[in-house]
Amino acid sequence: MIQIVTKKDYNKLLDVWVSAVEATHHFLSVKDYEFYREHVPIYFNHLDLYAYKNEKGVIKGFLGISEDNMIDMLFVHNSMRGKGIGKILMNFAIDELDARKVDVNEQNKQALEFYHHLGFEEVGRDEFDGEGLNYPIIHLEKKKE
User: Fold this and answer.
1) Number of C-beta neighbours around residue 26 at 10 A
2) Cα–Cα distance between 145 and 140 in angstroms, integer?
3) For 20-39, how does the pLDDT look when each residue is reduced to its tens digit (9 = 90+)?
4) Which of 8, 57, 58, 116 is the 20 to 30 A CA-CA neighbour of 85?
5) What is the pTM of this model?
6) Which CATH number fits domain 2-141: 3.40.630.30, 3.90.1140.10, 3.90.1300.10, 3.30.470.30?
């Protein structure tokens, strides 16, 4: 079940973020990982957040959408990877929110494959991420059918 997230859930979202990033973002330096870990809760304040909760109400993944309908965050707890939660969240973003753009770290090959599998196409690339760090970003978009 997907629900809107409130500030009281930010710590749980951060737990999901940590689990996902530690499993998939091996390219991040320790210094940069710590930087993002501190800043992610700040980023939460600027996004519409939606959580996938299991039958017990535990958050297992989440989605963050910016004002311009950009998918800024999609993270699934590592213990739940490969179980369809990311696809459920993305289908919600596309079908319910008409969010069709996402940026992905170039080094995150699994995420790139996931988005390509869902029909997203590369529309651009930046040499640095949004914080100006040396992590190239691939811009992806899913065209309306």
Assistant:
1) 10
2) 16
3) 999 988 888 999 999 999 99
4) 8
5) 0.91
6) 3.40.630.30
